[in-house]
């Protein structure tokens, strides 16, 4: 009689063990899908910005060159002036690329990583508090 109860208890523990790891695997998969979705949306939005901003700037600079050319009486002077401004801006960006591009990009990646890690930690804490309240009520 005791062997039968012990055997049933053992099978129950083994069954609970497998259910636990199935749930952990499901949580892992859901977290992975969430992280990949966030990564995809960030990459896609950055791609759109890198696509739209240069086109916008190109039209803006062309309009400025045409306006300056009309004011100065020769379109080539407007285009030369705008070309010179773009050249100077390019040199400045090249000189200050670490401050303007590298550091903000690194900070954004670090904050995104720790935000995801913090979100996972909050989920673990919420799951733990729900789980512990379930034990109290049982």
Mean pLDDT: 83
Task: Report low-confidence residues grouped into runs of 5 or more.
Answer: 131-138
Count of individual helical segments: 3
Which structural class is indicated by helix and strand composition?
A: mainly alpha
- Bin the strand percentage: under 5%
Biggest sheet features: none
Alpha-carbon distance between the termini? 27 Å
Rg from Cα = 30 Å
List keywords for this structure.
rod-shaped; disordered C terminus; 0% strand; 138 residues; 3 helices; single chain; mainly alpha
Describe this structure in words.
The protein has 138 residues and is an all-alpha fold. It has one domain. The chain has three helices and no strands. Helix 1 packs antiparallel against helix 2. The two termini are 27 Å apart.
Topology of this protein?
Blueprint: H1 2-72, H2 75-95, H3 97-137
Task: Characterize this entry briefly.
The protein contains three helices and no strands.
